[in-house]
Amino acid sequence: MNLKSGEKKNQIGSVQRPGDTRWGSHLRSLYIVRNMFKPILLVLEVILNEKNNLSFKATADGAYDMMKSFEFVFILHFMIELLEVTDDLCGILQCKNQDILDAMDVIINTKELIRRYKESGYDKLIDEVKGFCEKYEIEIPDMNGPRCSGRGRVTKGNSITLDHHYRFYIFIETTDLILQEMKNRFNDDAIDLLRLSSALEPRDGYKSFSIDNICELMEKFYPDDFTSQEKFCMKYQLELFELDIRRSELFQNVSTLAELCQLLFKTGKKMNYYLVDRLVRLIWTLPVSTATTERAFSSIMIVKTRLRNKMKDDFLASSLLMYIKKEIAEKFDVESIIDEFDGMKKRRVQFKMLKCNKVCDKS
């Protein structure tokens, strides 16, 4: 085969390293391994045939044997299909502004898809794995034969077949772990919180507005944020609020809790419906999206470098705040910062005078 020399020549693609916070990067990495399976094997064979770099040869030998095994191909395809089910949920939760109703629907639907995949996805998966093994000349073991333990030895009296091992100890056990993890992350209380919070969503002309659900939300999840008298008055305030939003065109045009909160402030009706406004603000602070958190963790790697590793927590928090909210920080100028710092307390150095002197020197 003739190869052209030069930068980025003969390059089919590159293997992507998965990220620490985004599971979607794991799915893309697995896609690349599956699509570039043969080129990866060819590269490993080249490394094995080299006379030098014995350490690389040992690593390549282990990787080559592992990739040419049926178990590796099975787990590769299994993880791709499993991550494809959860990929949409990961993407939605990573949006900067996420709607509570959409997030709740996607969580419920994702759980149901995983349950269906657990019940009926194994046979299809095995057929795909066998087809992939035949394409790349990988040995397909007898699925009805006994499973080997240790160094390829069959344990005497072992009744566990390979099919049983892959079906129950890998496929079903992994899907059960994913379902259990989703149950822990999005438990019944969390789903109930999202369901009750949707009662204040203004979307579709306040279609889901329910006074009973809103009062239940306040009693169940925010008991310390309202006094006993306020809890008693909430129902009547909600009745007035419902009549107002049904008649007002301004309130009919909003579609998110953020817009509703801003409209209550602009129209001054937050004073009339102060309990509703407080509850809307509490719901608005729910961490439905993980995007802001991931941005904060990514910013730590940029701000707290090796040379700044000894900075204290207060200075680090201030630096991260300025970096994350850079669109707001760009509006500040040096003069306003000096004025703010100078007005905090009396100091020996007069910052304003120094500023005037610098302007005179420049002129």
From TrEMBL:
- HAT C-terminal dimerisation domain residues are 268-327
- From which organism does this entry originate? Perilla frutescens var. hirtella
- This chain belongs to the protein called HAT C-terminal dimerisation domain-containing protein
| InterPro entries (UniProt xref) | AtLOH3-like, HATC_C_dom, RNaseH-like_sf
Top-level lineage group: Eukaryota
SUPFAM superfamilies membership = Ribonuclease H-like (SSF53098)
Q: Name the PANTHER family on file.
A: GENERAL TRANSCRIPTION FACTOR 2-RELATED ZINC FINGER PROTEIN, ZINC FINGER, MYM DOMAIN CONTAINING 1
Q: Highest lineage ranks of the organism?
A: Eukaryota, Viridiplantae, Streptophyta, Embryophyta, Tracheophyta
Pfam family for this entry, one: Dimer_Tnp_hAT
Gene Ontology MF, one: protein dimerization activity
